[in-house]
Design goal:
The complex is a heterodimer of chains A (about 180) and B (about 325). Chain A is an alpha/beta fold and about 180 residues long. Chain A has helices spanning about 20-35, 50-55, 65-75, 85-95, 125-135, 140-150, 165-175, and strands at about 10-15, 40, 80-85, 105, 135-140, 155-160. Chain A starts with 9 loop residues before the first strand and ends with a helix. Chain B has 12 helices and 10 strands.
């Protein structure tokens, strides 16, 4: 646990998906602060419509468009833990630690199924890296954990995504040595 | 139960952990009412097998048996031979580890075989509709087979076990095209290949970088061995020399571009290649524009394949491009 004379854990919450998760993460960040964590919401600048359309046309998953900015932000700043919520973000976080060591937590917020794990370019590659190199895989409930077991072949820890539970996860990671 | 197995599905797998898991999930949904078994011959480390295979419902139900081979010595031919030789079923269905069969796949293959006892049965293979967006990448690897095709690939085919015994299985010296070789030997015995168009397998759609696809396709240089062993296969080749029409046109383009400085008319040899290249993605300005951007990469890719086959031709002392 963090002692009183140690700075709080600095945790980056990567939010690149332009979906409902953004607001959830804002609330989560506020609650984490109250739980003694120093959370930073990493918001890469929103992608232009043209770039998004181009990426879609060429068969890429849209979040690839934010990957260079996310990588730059993770390399430019020091974090103890990076928490990613999409395979591409998790793969970027794993890549960034070649330059800046940090822990990577990857949460699947929705149950994966066959239709969304290799549906666009780079999704499968990002997913494979995220599963292989993340320090911890989290699922918010047993349903998602079961889907991860079935479609990703991994055993994710079921952790309710509240500030208290996540703070414990981050702190347990911090105790373990970095590779 | 072992005595009652009527069909054995044999899968050779290497370095495709997630795809293998998805294949197992698809096989779990098979509707075939008769007892069947799955024999997996793989090159994975024990911890991967623990994660993906041992805990899978098919393994828990006793349907799945697995054999590990050393990654350095494994090959598709060797792994498939190990698989069918330990099979209990009288029928052996082959599917690849980057494929996803429809739930009725096995049922349809077996039905067709029962209608044509002793025949080889080939099903339909299509790019996975769940991965069609990936076909927008410039360099894609997937498979489309309308049965009966000339190559009889193992991604979706069923053989009677007695025929495999008689033919002694796949030729393990073949690094590529071992499935084609087997089907040619089977055809030489007078055995027919029957179509099961509704036994559908979806093949993965994988995008690669240009160096990646060139490296991947280098294995096709070993097709020269196949042509050497089965000269009758030349009937399937373009002008009995070129593996396919793309290779024929690519050779024309290379010749034309190389000779155009001395004899400008030779440049016209490149026209078929570029016409084909520009039509790759269909008609319409947008499609043609994308095709035009991708044309140089396609030429490099095709040229590498042709050069690879030329090298294979020298090695195996038979000429195929």
């Amino acid at each position: 646990m963090t002692s009183s004379n140690q700075p709080p854990l600095r945790v980056a919450l990567l939010r690149t998906e332009p979906c409902g998760a953004a607001d959830t993460l804002t609330v989560l960040a506020q609650e984490l602060r109250a739980a003694g964590i120093d959370p930073v919401l990493l918001d890469p600048p929103s992608r232009s419509r043209k770039l998004t359309a181009l990426l879609r046309r060429r068969g890429f998953v849209e979040s690839v468009g934010s990957a260079p900015t996310s990588l730059a932000l993770l390399v430019a700043n020091r974090f103890d833990v990076v928490h990613a919520f999409t395979p591409v973000d998790a793969a970027v976080a794993c890549a960034a630690r070649r330059v800046r060591p940090h822990r990577v937590v990857f949460s699947c917020l929705e149950a994966p199924d066959r239709s969304c794990i290799a549906h666009r370019r780079l999704v499968l590659q990002a997913l494979s890296r995220a599963l292989e190199h993340s320090d911890t895989l989290l699922a918010p409930n047993e349903l998602v954990a079961a889907a991860m077991r079935r479609w990703l072949g991994v055993e994710a820890a079921v952790v309710c995504h509240t500030a208290t539970s996540l703070a414990q996860v981050y702190q347990s990671l911090e105790v373990a040595e970095l590779p | 139960m072992a005595e009652r197995v009527s069909v054995s599905v044999v899968v050779a797998s290497h370095a495709r952990k997630l795809r293998l898991l998805w294949l197992l999930n698809a096989l779990e949904e098979q509707t075939l009412a008769e007892p069947w078994e799955l024999i997996l011959v793989h090159t994975y480390r024990p911890e991967i097998i623990e994660d993906v295979v041992s805990s899978h419902p098919l393994a828990r139900r006793g349907v799945l048996r697995q054999t590990a081979v050393d990654a350095s010595s494994g090959s598709p031919a060797l792994q498939r031979n190990l698989g069918w030789r330990q099979a209990l079923g009288e029928l052996i269905a082959f599917v690849d580890d980057d494929c996803r069969p429809e739930p009725v796949w096995l049922e349809r293959l077996v039905e067709t075989e029962r209608r044509h006892p002793g025949a080889i049965v080939q099903g339909t293979t299509s790019p996975d509709p769940l991965e069609m967006a990936i076909t927008r990448a410039p360099h894609v690897r997937t498979m489309t087979i309308q049965p009966v095709g000339p190559y009889a690939q193992t991604c979706n085919i069923l053989y009677p076990r007695e025929l495999l015994h008689r033919l002694d299985g796949f030729d393990e010296r073949a690094i590529a095209g071992e499935d084609v070789g087997l089907s040619l030997r089977a055809r030489a015995t007078g055995r027919a290949i029957e179509a099961a168009p509704d036994a559908v397998v979806y093949h993965a759609v994988e995008s690669h970088t240009l160096p990646g696809i060139v490296k991947l396709n280098l294995k096709w240089r070993h097709l020269a061995y196949l042509v050497k062993r089965h000269p009758e296969f030349r009937e399937q080749l373009e002008l009995r020399l070129f593996w396919d029409r793309d290779h024929l046109y690519t050779c024309g383009a290379l010749l034309g571009l190389a000779g155009a400085r001395r004899h400008p008319l030779l440049a016209s040899l490149a026209i078929p290649h570029f016409v084909r290249s520009l039509g790759r993605r269909g008609t319409g300005l947008a499609n043609r524009t994308v095709s035009a951007f991708e044309a140089p990469g396609q030429l490099v890719r095709q040229a590498a394949e042709v050069l690879g086959l030329a090298a294979g031709s020298i090695r195996h002392q038979t000429f195929v491009l």
